[in-house]
Specification:
This protein is α/β, with parallel strands linked by helices and 230 residues long. The protein has a single domain, classed as Ribonuclease E inhibitor RraA/RraA-like (Glucose Oxidase, domain 1, 3-Layer(bba) Sandwich). The protein contains 8 helices and 11 strands. The strands form 2 sheets. Strands 1, 2, 3, 4, 5, 6, 7, 10 and 11 form a 9-stranded mixed sheet that branches. A two-stranded antiparallel sheet has the order 8-9. The radius of gyration is 21 Å and the shape is elongated. Its EC number is 4.1.1.112, 4.1.3.17. Homotrimer. Homohexamer. Belongs to the LigK/PcmE family. Belongs to the class II aldolase/RraA-like family. It catalyses: 4-hydroxy-4-methyl-2-oxoglutarate = 2 pyruvate; oxaloacetate + H(+) = pyruvate + CO2.
Length: 230
């Protein structure tokens, strides 16, 4: 009897419709998060390793052991065109799990980036390669290849549960996870929110105040707000 998922590699995961993933990729993390009902965000300590990094794609998940990047090499075999790697760790670790050599390997497999609750290194090389990475830390400390983790099992990354095939979107505002079965619906909701915001943007440009756009005057008065001349 297995007591955990360590040593497991799931080779056949479901991915969402690529058309829905492409539609979702048009929207920013903040828009998607709000469109889903303000859920799905990873903790804000996960930051882009370099300015301008952004990504969107179905997750191939990796469960790492602290100080050990063995499972990245196992995961590379499971990557399909358009996927992103999403890596958690069995316990907190900021070691430099990932660098330019692994990025080269994953790029050859069609991988579109990495989100990791751990450290990365070779940041200048990653930027030159335009391989987007979002990480807990930048850390030159190396790792070993000695202890089994898992690939394509549910992982917790920066307090968010990520299942294989969920879509992860990341930009300068953060990282959000969209459940695989909701990608199309969330893309629709994001478009609706974007259209609504554009209508408001036009009014703001015309000088209309948020007080009036959002109908705030009545509630503010009811709350006791007073205007005085002196």
């Amino acid at each position: 009897m297995r007591l955990n998922t360590l040593g497991i590699v799931r080779t056949n995961i479901e991915r969402p419709d690529p058309t829905d993933v492409k539609r979702l990729s048009q929207f920013g993390v903040a828009t998607i998060h709000e469109a889903m009902g303000r859920v799905g965000l990873l903790r804000p300590y996960i930051r882009p390793a370099y300015t301008g990094a952004k990504l969107c794609g179905p997750a191939v998940t990796v469960l790492l052991q602290p100080g050990d990047n063995w499972m990245f090499h196992v995961a590379a075999e499971q990557v399909q065109e358009g996927d992103v790697i999403v890596a958690g760790c069995t316990t907190e670790s900021e070691d430099g799990f990932f660098g330019e050599l692994l990025a080269t390997s994953l790029t050859a497999r069609g991988c579109k980036g990495l989100v990791i609750d751990g450290g990365v290194r070779d940041v200048a090389d990653l930027e030159n390669m335009d391989f987007p990475v979002f990480s807990r830390a930048v850390n030159a400390k190396g790792t070993v290849k000695a202890t089994l983790g898992s690939v394509n099992v549910p992982v917790v990354v920066a307090n968010a549960v990520v299942n294989p095939g969920d879509v992860v979107v990341a930009d300068v505002d953060g990282v959000v996870v969209v459940p695989r079965e909701l990608v199309g619906a969330v893309a629709d909701a994001s478009q609706k929110r974007e259209d609504n915001e554009e209508a408001k943007r036009v009014k703001f440009r015309e000088g209309v105040l948020g007080l009036d756009i959002y109908g705030m005057r009545g509630p503010l008065a009811a709350a006791g707000l007073e205007y005085v001349e002196k």
